Write the structure tokens for this entry.
Amino acid sequence: MTVKVSNLEQFLKENTDYIIYEHSVQTLENSEWIMAKTGLEKVIIVSGDKELLERLEGEVVEEGLMICPISHKNRLVLNSIFEWTKPKAFGNKITTIGLGDRLGMASPGHIAAIRDKKAKPVLAQQSIRELTLMDRTIDDIVDAASYAVFQEGYKEGYGADGDHLKEEKDIKRALDAGMTMLTLDCSDHIENTVSKYSTEELEKDYLKLPEEERLVYEKTYLEKSFSLKSFDISLTKEAIMYNVLLYKKALDFTVYVFDEYVQKASQAIDFELSIDETETVTSPSSHFFVANELAKRGVVVNSLAPRFIGEFQKGVDYMGDIKVFEEDFKKHTEIADKFDYKISVHSGSDKFSVFPIVGELTNGLFHLKTAGTNWLEAMRVMAEYEPELYRRMHRYAFDHFPEAQKYYHITPDLSNIPEVEDVTDGQLPDYLNDRNARQVLHVTYGVLLTATNPDGTSQFKQEFFEKMKKREKEYTESLTQHIGKHLELLNIPNH
């Protein structure tokens, strides 16, 4: 049967406690879909025929009308009917911004910030480490992104990134969940000790490789010069030995993952290689070596993340000489251009001082990852509107900071952070403007949201999420402004 839209309209007139998300209203030939909020919870209200409603889970409130929870099963049905709610791959010819959502609540604000920009959002993006700390799954983050896209009626396309994947089992999980981007983290296969080797030690280990393999490397690079736009690269024998020993295992692993998973995936994949999670800055010659070896072996990457000069620490601006960064970054962009992929900037949140350089030197074509900054904006909302809860979370975060610090490379100066007892409620949001306090709060999200009371109940999580749901509008506005500043300084134009 064909269901009249008036069914749904009449229901909403009679049930005024439902607040409608206006952008979510979608009408098909024989059904209508609306996302609404009742109390603190969101639901999908569907008007449709029996066959459609039987595919969904929820409560039938009258013939042809169902109220559906925001569940994984219902998300899959939503994806099957509205193609634009499914994540997609974008290739390497469009700017993409990774907008990880640790809480599952940030994507509406992210969409509002990027909706009118010539860039595509990667809304589902969490590392396995972050998922573990937050007690979430890969399906959870794709669910949250899909529902946010539906809520906002955003039909321009979004991506889903299996971020910083190291293990095959996690790569499989990401692909099974419908991820459309894989960021392969090779840090476990990069031999960082090589950076401390003497020439004699380099040669000793290099000679352990089969002679045939060594001859191939030397034929490729020794006494050769490779021309980029503004500079040339040549590798000495010592540089060849260094790069082979440093990256050989990582390259072998990348080739394996590309052949076994990326090439065989049922969906299109944006494949990114991360070599930034290392102790050693990626020199232009090392970047060239990695890129050239990948090309020789038939591996196609959409983006590559070197470790840039200076410090890209979490949640704060760039640390280092900006002029030196600009000169070095220019060389990396030229290498990326030569091999036809995008430069990827990791830990990209809040790097405001270098954003104009990134935008200009890449000609506006890059991938940039942000994640924890949306958690910090949530804490800003708590500091401003829920000061009592913020104070308790602040104290706990600072008391348990050593537990969280082991997961991240950050260098806050704790002595320069005012004691929370010494500031007024009105001054609490200032902590979110302080470099040192931001870093502490940034890395303690897992400690805070998994903390329990002696009886096993959540110490903060339940109360935090309840208050965040009440402050949904304020959170969205805060994120729209904050991420909007990122996009503006990156000089991403409007449509």
